[in-house]
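Single-chain item
Fold in token form
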Amino acid sequence: MSFEGKTWADMFVLGLPVLEKVLRAVFVYIFLVVGLRLAGKRELAQLNAFDLVVLLTISNTVQNAIIGDDNTVTGGVIGATTLLLVNFVVVKFLYSHERLDQLLEGAPDLLVENGQVNPARLKHEMVTIAEVETAARKQGFASLAEVERAVLEPGGGITFVARRPKPEESRHEELLARLDRVLEEISALRRERPGTA
């Protein structure tokens, strides 16, 4: 076999049977779905560098389980296609089975409610206040004092809802603004009449 023929064979001729390639990808997919569900939403949220390292090393670790001894382009395409197809089928199935979807995905978790941090929920999800504060700053909040609700979503993201001022706070701000305008008008009138002070 010529060098060119060997190169093409190394790239495209499978070293493993197609069925084995497909089954490897399916088993790894199932393992990751179950494993990430058991690990909790925090892994998906990537709240700190440790979470990111875990996800990166998992992807590198399971790569070998999917491809086996086969490093061909064909094998990679079969593995990737299998993962995409399995995911499409699972998502389509779960779309019409809401209860099963919620069981697999989990439910949202209230970390902050009515402006109060919920320490029990933080402990349950193994999320620190510092991590919630960091996530809030990334979404434009200066501090948790500006947050009415913070929800750790099943997909790992944290959704923040801004505090709305209470009616009396709004009225107070409005009165202060009016007072400032009145004071500015008085100052302008005094400047127009230099003899009055």
User: Anything to note?
Assistant: Residues 3-105 form one domain.
